[in-house]
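User: Um, what's this?
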Amino acid sequence: METPMPQRKIIHVDMDAFYASVEQLDNPALRGLPLAVGGGETRGVVAAASYEARKFGVRSAMSGYLAKKRCPDLVFVRPRFERYMEISKKIRSIFYEYTDKVEPLSLDEAYLDVTHNKKGNPSATVIAAEIRQRILEETGLTASAGISINKFIAKVASDYNKPNGQKTVNPHEVLEFLEQLPIGKFYGVGKVTTEKMYQLGIFTGADLKLKTQEYLIDHFGKAGGYYYHVVRGIHNSEVKSDRIAKSVGTEHTFNENLVSEVFMLEKLEFIADELMRRLQKKKIAGKTVTLKIKYSDFTVQTRSKTLPYFISDKSLIMEAVRELLYQERPKDSVRLLGISLANLNNEAGEKKAVAVQLRFDF
């Protein structure tokens, strides 16, 4: 018997080039310039790039050297995370005026469930526009939004009309929208997976939809089941406003401090292997990967990434860890590295639906 998909109105709000936009907001001399927030040209890594810089191919996690090579006029500024957190709190306070069902993914993006909202407004599209206008008026920054029946489609849609735009994918438009979507635009399909998809003749959602669930699992592991469902508009994950802070992790302290990301990655491979064994022993998986770095001065830094599906495989864990490691160059030599996986599948059993209900007024 088919299980109808819950009818929800989900908004994904994503700030436009958040770190770079804050720097340009606070320093008018930087406005209109190609800007990179990060460590600098010689040793740094780009944490964020302005849209002026993105036109030259400058992207986050790119080395400062390559970024400068692509854009000779690129201006580097050091990140100011306290300032970003201050503005992020203002933005979240706006969200909570509309709903208590807010799930932050990072400082600059969040999901909102406005199916039943505090304003009594039946239109998620209108609410999204109001929120974006409030953010602009109260912070001076622009945001983009995606609106649809679930978190996955809302996330994809928020990137559709960036910057400073929004897109609604109504229930009756979901299947056609996903079929026409380039495979690289699917949330959860990174560069490596995109290339593998291309090799298998999968270039669009329509191509993906032709593959059986068994075929996708055979080629992509557990993520294959995720791909099979989301291309059919099935993604039942609720907006979680109060995540349980349970995790599984492992960490190593080194006899000699590490000074190169190459050596760090080598150690992280072993740590990820140990973590995978622990996860398999407990028969659990998680969505949120956290990289822990303790420096020689004993200060600790953590960087996290939340995936749209549960993972326990070492290769998928390491794909996220590599991205986290290169977000920002380590500020000093490293004495400890750790990896943990949170948002576990033993905390909330996500029920799988096998049909999409397409009658819902947005």
Observations:
- Confidence is low (pLDDT under 50) at residues 348-360.
- Residues 261-282 form the longest helix (22 residues).
- The chain has three domains: 10-17+83-173, 18-81, 247-344.
- The chain has 13 helices and twelve strands.
